[in-house]
Design a protein that fits this description.
Elements (H helix, E strand, L loop, with lengths): L4 H15 L4 H5 L50 E5 L5 H10 L4 E6 L2 H14 L4 E5 L12 E7 L8 H11 E15 L4 H5 L1 H4 L9 H11 L2 E10 L4 H4 L5 H8 L4 E10 L1
Length: 268
Protein backbone atom coordinates (compact mmCIF):
# COMPACT_ATOMS: atom_id res chain seq x y z
CA UNK A 1 0.00 0.00 0.00
CA UNK A 2 1.37 3.40 -0.97
CA UNK A 3 1.17 6.03 1.72
CA UNK A 4 1.61 9.70 0.89
CA UNK A 5 3.72 11.80 3.21
CA UNK A 6 0.77 13.99 4.11
CA UNK A 7 -1.06 10.91 5.44
CA UNK A 8 1.85 9.40 7.37
CA UNK A 9 1.59 11.69 10.38
CA UNK A 10 -2.10 10.93 10.83
CA UNK A 11 -1.44 7.18 10.54
CA UNK A 12 1.31 7.37 13.16
CA UNK A 13 -0.69 9.65 15.44
CA UNK A 14 -3.74 7.37 15.38
CA UNK A 15 -1.60 4.29 15.98
CA UNK A 16 0.27 5.77 18.93
CA UNK A 17 -2.92 7.09 20.49
CA UNK A 18 -4.00 3.43 20.64
CA UNK A 19 -0.58 2.23 21.81
CA UNK A 20 -0.75 4.66 24.75
CA UNK A 21 -3.73 2.72 26.07
CA UNK A 22 -1.90 -0.63 25.93
CA UNK A 23 0.31 -2.13 28.62
CA UNK A 24 4.06 -2.55 28.27
CA UNK A 25 3.52 -6.31 27.87
CA UNK A 26 1.05 -5.76 25.03
CA UNK A 27 3.46 -3.40 23.28
CA UNK A 28 6.44 -5.72 23.66
CA UNK A 29 4.51 -8.63 22.13
CA UNK A 30 3.74 -6.70 18.95
CA UNK A 31 5.69 -4.77 16.33
CA UNK A 32 6.86 -1.93 18.55
CA UNK A 33 3.30 -1.60 19.78
CA UNK A 34 1.74 -1.77 16.32
CA UNK A 35 -0.21 -4.92 17.07
CA UNK A 36 -1.18 -8.01 15.13
CA UNK A 37 2.33 -9.16 14.26
CA UNK A 38 3.30 -12.06 16.44
CA UNK A 39 2.56 -13.97 19.61
CA UNK A 40 6.28 -14.10 20.35
CA UNK A 41 7.99 -12.01 22.98
CA UNK A 42 8.80 -9.02 20.80
CA UNK A 43 11.57 -7.41 22.85
CA UNK A 44 14.13 -7.33 20.06
CA UNK A 45 13.88 -3.54 19.74
CA UNK A 46 13.51 -2.38 23.33
CA UNK A 47 16.22 -2.08 25.98
CA UNK A 48 15.97 -2.74 29.72
CA UNK A 49 15.69 0.50 31.68
CA UNK A 50 14.85 -1.00 35.05
CA UNK A 51 18.23 -0.39 36.73
CA UNK A 52 18.55 3.24 35.58
CA UNK A 53 18.14 6.12 38.00
CA UNK A 54 14.83 7.86 37.41
CA UNK A 55 13.19 4.80 35.88
CA UNK A 56 9.43 4.82 36.26
CA UNK A 57 7.61 1.64 35.18
CA UNK A 58 4.41 3.60 34.52
CA UNK A 59 6.27 5.54 31.82
CA UNK A 60 7.91 2.53 30.17
CA UNK A 61 5.74 1.26 27.32
CA UNK A 62 8.55 -0.85 25.84
CA UNK A 63 8.66 1.16 22.61
CA UNK A 64 12.31 2.19 22.39
CA UNK A 65 15.20 0.72 20.42
CA UNK A 66 18.07 1.98 22.59
CA UNK A 67 18.94 4.12 25.60
CA UNK A 68 19.86 7.53 24.14
CA UNK A 69 20.58 9.12 27.52
CA UNK A 70 23.46 6.64 27.90
CA UNK A 71 25.54 8.54 25.33
CA UNK A 72 24.06 12.05 25.66
CA UNK A 73 26.63 13.40 28.16
CA UNK A 74 23.83 15.11 30.08
CA UNK A 75 25.03 17.24 32.98
CA UNK A 76 23.41 18.59 36.11
CA UNK A 77 21.51 21.78 35.29
CA UNK A 78 21.11 21.00 31.57
CA UNK A 79 17.96 21.62 29.57
CA UNK A 80 17.03 18.40 27.78
CA UNK A 81 14.48 17.96 24.98
CA UNK A 82 13.05 14.50 24.26
CA UNK A 83 11.50 14.13 20.81
CA UNK A 84 8.55 11.75 20.69
CA UNK A 85 8.53 11.50 24.47
CA UNK A 86 5.61 9.08 24.76
CA UNK A 87 4.68 8.36 28.38
CA UNK A 88 7.90 10.01 29.60
CA UNK A 89 10.35 7.14 30.02
CA UNK A 90 13.49 8.90 28.73
CA UNK A 91 12.40 12.21 30.23
CA UNK A 92 12.37 10.80 33.75
CA UNK A 93 15.77 9.17 33.27
CA UNK A 94 17.11 12.51 32.00
CA UNK A 95 15.54 14.33 34.96
CA UNK A 96 17.48 12.11 37.38
CA UNK A 97 20.67 13.41 35.76
CA UNK A 98 19.86 17.13 35.38
CA UNK A 99 18.51 17.32 38.94
CA UNK A 100 16.42 20.09 40.42
CA UNK A 101 18.39 22.81 38.63
CA UNK A 102 17.87 21.42 35.15
CA UNK A 103 14.81 21.17 32.93
CA UNK A 104 13.34 18.41 30.80
CA UNK A 105 10.87 19.03 27.97
CA UNK A 106 9.02 16.19 26.29
CA UNK A 107 7.57 16.78 22.82
CA UNK A 108 4.88 14.54 21.33
CA UNK A 109 1.92 14.94 18.98
CA UNK A 110 -0.23 12.12 20.39
CA UNK A 111 -2.85 13.55 22.75
CA UNK A 112 -3.24 10.23 24.52
CA UNK A 113 0.51 9.87 25.07
CA UNK A 114 0.70 13.43 26.39
CA UNK A 115 -2.15 12.75 28.80
CA UNK A 116 -0.38 9.63 30.08
CA UNK A 117 2.93 11.48 30.47
CA UNK A 118 1.30 14.35 32.34
CA UNK A 119 -0.39 11.90 34.69
CA UNK A 120 3.02 10.34 35.39
CA UNK A 121 4.75 13.66 36.09
CA UNK A 122 1.91 14.68 38.39
CA UNK A 123 2.38 11.50 40.42
CA UNK A 124 6.11 12.21 40.68
CA UNK A 125 5.50 15.86 41.64
CA UNK A 126 8.31 17.15 39.41
CA UNK A 127 8.19 20.88 38.68
CA UNK A 128 10.93 20.86 36.05
CA UNK A 129 9.53 18.24 33.65
CA UNK A 130 7.00 19.45 31.09
CA UNK A 131 5.22 17.72 28.20
CA UNK A 132 4.08 19.77 25.21
CA UNK A 133 2.27 18.98 21.99
CA UNK A 134 4.19 19.58 18.80
CA UNK A 135 5.51 18.37 15.47
CA UNK A 136 9.18 17.39 15.25
CA UNK A 137 9.37 19.04 11.82
CA UNK A 138 8.13 22.33 13.31
CA UNK A 139 9.00 22.35 16.99
CA UNK A 140 7.35 24.88 19.33
CA UNK A 141 10.76 25.37 20.96
CA UNK A 142 12.91 28.53 20.96
CA UNK A 143 16.11 28.58 18.92
CA UNK A 144 19.30 27.97 20.88
CA UNK A 145 17.45 27.04 24.06
CA UNK A 146 18.39 23.38 24.57
CA UNK A 147 21.62 21.75 25.81
CA UNK A 148 20.78 18.18 24.81
CA UNK A 149 18.27 16.57 22.46
CA UNK A 150 17.42 12.88 22.89
CA UNK A 151 15.00 10.69 20.97
CA UNK A 152 14.20 6.99 21.05
CA UNK A 153 12.88 5.13 17.98
CA UNK A 154 10.89 8.11 16.73
CA UNK A 155 12.70 9.94 13.91
CA UNK A 156 12.27 6.90 11.64
CA UNK A 157 8.56 7.76 11.73
CA UNK A 158 9.10 11.38 10.66
CA UNK A 159 8.48 11.85 6.91
CA UNK A 160 11.02 14.67 6.39
CA UNK A 161 14.13 13.66 8.30
CA UNK A 162 16.17 16.52 6.85
CA UNK A 163 13.73 19.00 8.30
CA UNK A 164 13.72 17.14 11.62
CA UNK A 165 17.52 17.33 11.97
CA UNK A 166 17.44 20.96 10.85
CA UNK A 167 15.01 21.66 13.68
CA UNK A 168 17.25 19.80 16.13
CA UNK A 169 20.15 21.97 14.99
CA UNK A 170 18.06 25.13 15.41
CA UNK A 171 16.89 24.47 18.98
CA UNK A 172 20.32 23.40 20.27
CA UNK A 173 22.67 25.87 21.89
CA UNK A 174 26.15 26.32 20.43
CA UNK A 175 28.11 23.22 21.46
CA UNK A 176 24.83 21.53 22.30
CA UNK A 177 24.54 17.86 21.43
CA UNK A 178 22.08 15.15 20.57
CA UNK A 179 21.91 11.42 21.20
CA UNK A 180 19.32 9.55 19.16
CA UNK A 181 18.39 5.86 19.05
CA UNK A 182 16.66 4.89 15.84
CA UNK A 183 16.05 2.16 13.27
CA UNK A 184 17.92 2.13 9.95
CA UNK A 185 18.23 -0.20 6.98
CA UNK A 186 21.12 -1.72 5.09
CA UNK A 187 20.29 -2.92 1.60
CA UNK A 188 16.90 -2.90 -0.10
CA UNK A 189 13.73 -4.12 1.62
CA UNK A 190 10.72 -5.37 -0.37
CA UNK A 191 8.39 -2.54 -1.31
CA UNK A 192 5.42 -4.06 0.52
CA UNK A 193 7.36 -4.04 3.78
CA UNK A 194 8.64 -0.53 3.18
CA UNK A 195 5.20 0.87 2.38
CA UNK A 196 3.11 -1.06 4.89
CA UNK A 197 1.23 1.46 7.03
CA UNK A 198 1.01 -0.86 10.04
CA UNK A 199 4.75 -1.46 10.07
CA UNK A 200 5.29 2.26 9.46
CA UNK A 201 3.55 3.00 12.72
CA UNK A 202 5.73 0.35 14.31
CA UNK A 203 9.46 0.51 13.77
CA UNK A 204 10.55 -0.70 10.37
CA UNK A 205 9.12 0.76 7.20
CA UNK A 206 9.67 4.42 8.08
CA UNK A 207 13.38 3.72 8.39
CA UNK A 208 15.87 4.82 5.72
CA UNK A 209 19.29 3.60 4.68
CA UNK A 210 21.94 3.95 7.37
CA UNK A 211 24.32 5.84 5.05
CA UNK A 212 21.55 8.25 4.06
CA UNK A 213 20.59 8.80 7.70
CA UNK A 214 24.16 9.61 8.74
CA UNK A 215 24.59 11.74 5.62
CA UNK A 216 21.64 13.92 6.62
CA UNK A 217 23.28 14.54 10.00
CA UNK A 218 26.56 15.56 8.36
CA UNK A 219 24.87 17.82 5.83
CA UNK A 220 22.89 19.56 8.58
CA UNK A 221 26.16 20.85 9.99
CA UNK A 222 26.76 18.71 13.06
CA UNK A 223 30.28 17.82 14.16
CA UNK A 224 31.94 14.85 15.87
CA UNK A 225 29.25 12.41 14.82
CA UNK A 226 29.62 9.00 16.44
CA UNK A 227 27.62 5.81 16.08
CA UNK A 228 27.84 4.72 19.70
CA UNK A 229 25.94 1.46 19.37
CA UNK A 230 24.58 -0.72 16.58
CA UNK A 231 22.49 -3.88 16.88
CA UNK A 232 20.99 -6.09 14.19
CA UNK A 233 17.25 -6.54 14.53
CA UNK A 234 16.48 -10.24 14.18
CA UNK A 235 12.84 -10.34 13.14
CA UNK A 236 10.95 -13.62 13.72
CA UNK A 237 10.64 -15.66 10.54
CA UNK A 238 6.84 -15.74 10.76
CA UNK A 239 6.82 -11.96 10.40
CA UNK A 240 9.35 -11.92 7.57
CA UNK A 241 7.39 -14.48 5.56
CA UNK A 242 4.59 -11.94 5.28
CA UNK A 243 6.91 -9.73 3.22
CA UNK A 244 9.66 -11.94 1.70
CA UNK A 245 9.60 -14.79 -0.76
CA UNK A 246 12.00 -17.71 -0.21
CA UNK A 247 14.88 -16.18 -2.19
CA UNK A 248 14.51 -12.80 -0.51
CA UNK A 249 14.33 -14.43 2.92
CA UNK A 250 17.57 -16.29 2.27
CA UNK A 251 19.25 -13.08 1.19
CA UNK A 252 17.96 -11.32 4.30
CA UNK A 253 19.22 -14.09 6.57
CA UNK A 254 22.64 -13.94 4.87
CA UNK A 255 22.87 -10.30 5.97
CA UNK A 256 23.02 -8.84 2.49
CA UNK A 257 20.14 -6.74 3.68
CA UNK A 258 18.94 -6.02 7.19
CA UNK A 259 17.38 -3.82 9.82
CA UNK A 260 19.48 -2.29 12.61
CA UNK A 261 19.00 -0.16 15.67
CA UNK A 262 21.67 2.49 16.14
CA UNK A 263 22.41 5.14 18.72
CA UNK A 264 24.14 8.12 17.15
CA UNK A 265 25.38 11.34 18.75
CA UNK A 266 26.80 14.62 17.43
CA UNK A 267 27.60 18.19 18.48
CA UNK A 268 26.38 21.52 17.10
Amino acid sequence: MNVHKKDIKEIVKEKYNRIALQSRKENETSCCGAGGCSDLDYTIFSENYEKLDGYNPDADLGLGCGIPTQFAQIKKGDTVLDLGSGAGNDCFVARAIVGDTGKVLGLDFSDTMLEKARENVKKLDFTNVEFVKGDIEEMPVSSGSVDVVVSNCVLNLVPDKRKAFSEIYRVLKKDGRFSISDVVIKGTLPKDLKDGAVMYAGCVSGAIQKDEYLGIINKTGFNTMTVNKEKEIKLPEEILRNYFNEDELGEFRNKNIGIFSITVSAIK
